[in-house]
């Protein structure tokens, strides 16, 4: 079973999750592609595709949305896993539903709502300001749900 992971990250948390997925899936070959560096990875040779991104101001990265829309039919032929990194526990489910098209959500074998991290030292001035105003946070904080990541791995392995 070969797996392709397509992802985007702002400050590295989604990349951290992807590293855990790559190590955890273990069977067959697992490749990870950052859409920032390669906007249209070839995935016809893969049996499974995992797509993941992070939520900023309520939205996943637009390139993740575009990738899902452009390749919807081909993705419906794959074993599919979808995940988000996010911090707002109350809105997580809504943010996930808004991030991925309904057809893909229904088809996906695994949904991952993995929580996230606020890494103040990696934020620019505007990001720090927004996080202070919206989330009322001025310190770095980790809320990654490793149990949920490992359950996702079990399904996608
Ligand atoms: C400027 C900013 C805006 C954010 N907005 C949201 C949001 O609207 N909802 C949410 O759940 N998390 C929000 N987050 C939290 C991120 O989703 C979280 O930090 C995530 O771990 C980022 O992952 P990444 O480093 O892979 O991009 C925001 C974070 C920042 C820095």
How does this structure look, described?
With 157 residues, the protein is α/β, with parallel strands linked by helices. It has a single domain, classed as 3-Layer(aba) Sandwich (Rossmann fold), CATH 3.40.50. It is 39% helix and 20% strand. The chain contains 7 helices and 7 strands; from the N terminus they run βαββααβααββαβα. The strands form 2 sheets. It has a 5-stranded parallel β-sheet, sandwiched between helices. Strand 1, helix 1 and strand 2 form a beta-alpha-beta unit. The model has no long low-confidence stretch (mean pLDDT 96). Bound molecules: flavin mononucleotide. Flavin mononucleotide binds next to helix 1, strand 6 and helix 6.
In CATH, the homologous superfamily goes by the name Flavodoxin domain
Total strands: 7
Q: Strand percentage, roughly? A: 15-25%
Heteromolecules bound: flavin mononucleotide
For the biggest sheet, the summary is: 5 strands, parallel
* Residue-averaged pLDDT: 96
Shape: globular
Give, in order, the helices and strands: EHEEHHEHHEEHEH
Give the uncertain stretches in residue-range form: none
CATH topology: Rossmann fold
Structural class: alpha/beta
Proportion of helical residues: 25-40%
List the helices and strands and how they pair.
Blueprint: E1 3-7, H1 13-25, E2 30-34, E3 48-54, H2 62-70, H3 72-75, E4 79-85, H4 92-99, H5 102-107, E5 110-113, E6 117-118, H6 125-135, E7 141-142, H7 146-156
Parallel strand pairs: 1-2, 1-3, 3-4, 4-5
Antiparallel strand pairs: 6-7
Helix pairs in contact: 1-7
The structure holds flavin mononucleotide.
